[in-house]
């Protein structure tokens, strides 16, 4: 009788815990809808996440399976974000694929950030299809 | 490759370090690799393999790897990525370099696509003996995957001596490490309607970013606008919902293949393609210049956030 009573009590406690447990969040499954973003003011970007580090790029060479290492990079790195900007004149010094054939070798020593094709350091890279 | 190549590197640990030799070595590797996989060079490995279709042919390990990857990606994308479209490219007029085409023009298509054509999955690969065999009548173009392979090799070479580097060939980019100044790489997405403009900027950590576009490599054949992105299902330049698709992925081969597959497959196939590769993000530019992003990525990141915050 004592064992039965304890079992019933334990069951009731567990039921109470489940009833008050936080519910899992269901992701939005409407993957057939696309967020078309008009060119205009900057997008509201995703809230900061723990960065996903792709620095295993060459550590798993030969494998097409990406490995996410959730760790802090040397500096806080946001996720791939897209900032939609107004069409504007582009710095002609900026790298523009297809127009500077064979130009290579802009080296930088501990100074500038992103690579730049033609002008001074710090310009953005450009991807435009080929 | 008929594309501008950009090499950028920095070594945060050694102020004033001379990275010239590394950059030069990477440049040399790019030039040598291009000569191996170009379909326009009579003596390239690829040209010789195509010429031997139907017979076993000695092939380098690198080319065997590319053939194997291509076969795997073809299966994965349901045939939207298929290197055996060289005959279709030639019929569309892309039988010489783009510079020559634009200078001399192209002949009209010589007849329709053959109704019977070999399947790329029939390509045989013998890694032990270092040889491969294309089915008789097949000709392949590795432009959809070899450029990324070359870029990745150059970046690997550079990264052995630097803390951060980026290699770009025609806008197919590998970024390694984190640049000192910004902490991330900033990559502009070119407006496919106007190459002097950008539609967006992506900020990313290490990884690869590739854009496939129907606007960049185009020409006229018998008065009709043609482009280089062949739809393997029809053998014709693809009719697409978007002008370009940019993919960010951990590896450049994935980015290259999926940029093409998404652009060719369009809105109908995009959800399924993106779902089978949750590690990629893509941005599609519509003819009116609007930019769409795959929502799956948003869901994936939100779901991951829940896991991290628990």
Description:
Chain A has one helix at residues 2-20; strands spanning 35-37, 52-53, 69-70, 81-84, 106-107, 125-127. Chain A has 130 residues and is α+β, with helices and mostly antiparallel strands. In chain A, strands 2-3 form a two-stranded antiparallel sheet. By secondary structure, chain B is an alpha+beta fold. Chain B has eight helices and 16 strands. Chain B has a seven-stranded antiparallel sheet. A three-stranded antiparallel sheet of chain B has the order 2-4-3, with helices on one face. In chain B, strands 7-8 form a two-stranded antiparallel sheet. In chain B, helix 1 packs antiparallel against helix 6 (143-159) and helix 6 (143-159) crosses helix 7 (252-275). The N and C termini of chain B lie far apart (48 Å). Classes of the chains: A alpha+beta (130), B alpha+beta (310).
Short characterization:
In chain A, 15% of the residues lie in helices and 12% in strands.
Structural class call of chain A reads alpha+beta
Number of helical regions of chain A: 1
Q: What is the count of distinct domains of chain B?
A: 1
Q: Which fold name is given in CATH as the topology of chain B? A: T-fold
How many DSSP helices of chain B? 8
- Could you say which overall geometry of chain B the principal axes of the C-alpha atoms support? globular
Give the overall average pLDDT of chain B: 86
**Whole-number average pLDDT of chain A?**
44
**SSE arrangement of chain B, N to C:** EHHEHHHEEHEEEEEEEEEEHEEH
């Amino acid at each position: 009788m004592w064992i039965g009573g304890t079992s019933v009590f334990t069951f009731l406690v567990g039921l109470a815990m489940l009833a008050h447990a936080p519910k899992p969040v269901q992701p939005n499954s409407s993957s057939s809808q696309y967020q078309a973003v008009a060119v205009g003011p900057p997008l509201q970007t995703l809230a900061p996440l723990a960065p996903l580090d792709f620095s295993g790029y060459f550590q798993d060479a030969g494998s097409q399976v990406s490995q996410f290492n959730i760790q802090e990079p040397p500096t806080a790195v946001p996720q791939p974000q897209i900032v939609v900007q107004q069409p504007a004149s582009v710095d002609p010094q900026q790298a523009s694929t297809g127009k500077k054939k064979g130009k290579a070798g802009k080296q930088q020593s501990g100074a500038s950030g992103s690579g730049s094709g033609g002008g001074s350091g710090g310009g953005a890279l450009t991807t435009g299809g080929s | 490759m008929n594309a501008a190549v950009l090499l950028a590197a920095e070594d945060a640990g050694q102020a004033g370090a001379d990275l010239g030799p590394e950059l030069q070595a990477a440049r040399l590797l790019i030039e040598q690799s291009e000569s191996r996989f170009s379909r326009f060079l009579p003596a390239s490995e690829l040209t010789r393999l195509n010429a031997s279709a139907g017979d076993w042919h000695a092939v380098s390990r690198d080319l065997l790897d590319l053939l194997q990857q291509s076969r795997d990606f073809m299966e994965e994308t349901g045939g939207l990525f298929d290197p055996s479209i060289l005959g279709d490219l030639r019929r569309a007029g892309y039988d010489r370099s783009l510079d020559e085409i634009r200078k001399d023009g192209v002949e009209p298509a010589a007849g329709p696509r053959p109704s019977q054509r070999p399947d790329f999955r029939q390509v045989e690969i013998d890694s032990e003996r270092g040889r491969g065999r294309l089915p008789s009548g097949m000709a392949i173009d590795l432009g959809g995957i070899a450029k990324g392979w070359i870029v990745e090799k150059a970046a690997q070479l550079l990264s052995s001596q630097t803390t951060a580097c980026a290699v770009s060939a025609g806008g197919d980019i590998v970024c390694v490490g984190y640049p000192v100044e910004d902490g991330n790489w900033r990559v502009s997405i070119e407006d496919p309607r106007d190459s002097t403009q950008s539609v967006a900027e992506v900020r990313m950590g290490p990884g690869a970013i590739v854009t496939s576009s129907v606007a960049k490599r185009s020409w006229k054949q018998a008065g009709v606008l043609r482009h280089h992105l062949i739809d393997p299902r029809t053998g014709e330049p693809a009719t697409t919902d978007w002008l370009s698709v940019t993919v960010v992925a951990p590896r450049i081969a994935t980015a290259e293949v999926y940029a093409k597959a998404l652009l060719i497959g369009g809105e109908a196939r995009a959800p399924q393609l993106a779902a089978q590769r949750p590690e990629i993000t893509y941005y599609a530019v519509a003819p009116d210049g609007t930019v769409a992003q795959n929502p799956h990525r948003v869901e994936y990141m939100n779901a991951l956030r829940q896991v991290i915050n628990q």
